[in-house]
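Minutes, methods subgroup
Present: GH (chair), OT, SY

1. OT presented the first of two proteins processed in the latest run. Sequence and structure tokens recorded below as shown on screen.
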Amino acid sequence: MSYLTKRKWLLVNGTLCIALIMTMLTCAAIGAERVSFAQLWQSSSIDNPEAVILFRIRLPRVLLAAVVGGALGVAGAALQALLHNPLACPHLLGVSGGASLCGILALVGTGMVAAHAPSFLKISLVSAAAFGGAMGTTLLIYRLALVHGRLQPYALLLTGVVFNAFCSAIIMLVNSLVDFYQSHAILFWLMGSLAARDYMTVGATSLYVGIAAAWLINQGRRLNLLSLGEESALQLGIDVEALRRGIFLTSSLLVGAIVAVSGMIGFVGLIVPHLLRLLFGADHRLLLPASLFGGAMFLVVADTLARTVASPIELPVGVVTALCGGPFFVYLLRKEGRKVFVR
């Protein structure tokens, strides 16, 4: 931790930031119809087909993928530090389960009572319900995880797992009671999607994520001290209970907002921090911002694969992240297991 210098911090995060920008530009040009930037700049008309494809269809989606991926990456790194568990991920604490349940109930409800309502109104109601469910679930899990008035990591983890299982059971019950079209909509929403979003949604989500991510990144030094153990952190002047409470609430509300706009997208907050920890070390002053950029890059690439690999059929982005992340995580576990065995 003491070997981190300002030069290294700027070098790593600057490189990741430039790589993210290049990735976004490249992915925005890739699709069923390839966009030529040369032809785009030659015509100043906003009705130019190249401009319509790039600025109205692909760019909002690429930007949202970067915001969602960055949020999941930084939240995953923070929660792994909070729970002292590298296998922890943002969707493990139960908040995503509550958000998904409320979002699905709203999705089914709007389909029943407002079949002819504008699609943007349905999307807004579903997102609002999911975020409201995330807030309510966050408060509920926080109260359940308190042991003698203190937030305990293991109680928090177990409460989240049990609550996720409970919400999954209710979601399956709802899915079995609705018709085929609503069941398909529920399944697609659960697997995650970044389509049908405008610049206003992207801007509001970016502002929300930026504030929450900045606060989490600012806690990097305190998380380093917390990793030394609770007693050591207390002796070094860290208010452990306040730090745990702040990390949990901020990460939970961050994940809830992401689920509200994109559905369930797994593995980003699990794989990215773990990989970057292997590459750059466990210093959270560096790991948290690196996870922000790395998560954004990973999801932009995954979403590009989702909309192009089986074109004209679009795959749910959550399926792509699971297919990419699952085998890679098994590889990491085997690699680390061999190192432990040799030692």
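2. SY then presented the second protein from the same run.
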Amino acid sequence: MRKRKLASLALLLCVVLALAACGGGGGETRLIMATGGVAGTYHPFGGVLSSVINENTDMHVTVNASGASIDNIQQIGSGDSHLALAQNDVMYYAFHGVSIWSEREPVTNLATLMTLYPETVQIVVDAGSGIYSVADLAGMRVSVGDVGSGVEANAIQVLAAHGLTMDNITVINLPFAGSADQMRDGNLDAFFVTSAAPNTAVMELATARDLRILPIADDRAAALIADYPFYVRVTLDSSDYEWLTTPIQTLAVQATLITSTDLDEQLAYDIVRALIENQPDILAGHMRGADISPENAVQSISVPFHPGAQRFFEEIGALS
């Protein structure tokens, strides 16, 4: 009898501890945020976001390094993470099961919390290459990012808007650092980067080579935005790379904070409220905090808002 009572008490204690760990019984709600590689932007920026959430809500968010957008979306879909950072174009592909997601199961439990900052499409060439437009890439050695990546999808779309396909270039699949190394050694004519500007690999290459970033003309940009509404028009200038002597018109996708439709509505509301109301603290921790605002947070939404996030943005007038 005594052993059965002890076993029952032990079981009860386990239940209480489990409830506390997930926010039950008035305890702290614990969440996991998937970010990106430790050398990229997602991981340190996610760390700043988590700190602001932890300091201004009853939640405790733990940040995990990951493989970025594709990996993060899969983690949300499987329930391995509660929050994540992802590109809004990759979110669109995953939600609808198209483009780079056409051979994977769609992830239909994705929900948007807020847009964070633009990830700019940067087409980098050597300043002495004689390449001045996307059309000039025909016949050139071009790195388009890793196979199946969001960067590769962006490259295919931008090339198509200029009448080119992957058959018109010598395709090389390398990450940003590898692309920069190959251009430094003269083995590459151009490479695509989709990331926050400035990009570390581009900055480091600029110390060894004079570079140019190709513009995307207004008519081609308008056509791309019409076909792919997750794009936005952006300008790169000397505030992004000091060696840019004239502004460069290009496009960007949006880094987005995402969650699952299963997340409690009030938790979603409290997360976006904490981030919007404490934007100065985000900026103090990371330069990308400059892009956080109610207006920017609701731009280029490629997957529906979580009801809690939508309620917050409607209450403050950012959504009608």
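Chair's summary of item 2: The chain has a mean pLDDT of 91.
Next meeting: continue with the remaining queue.
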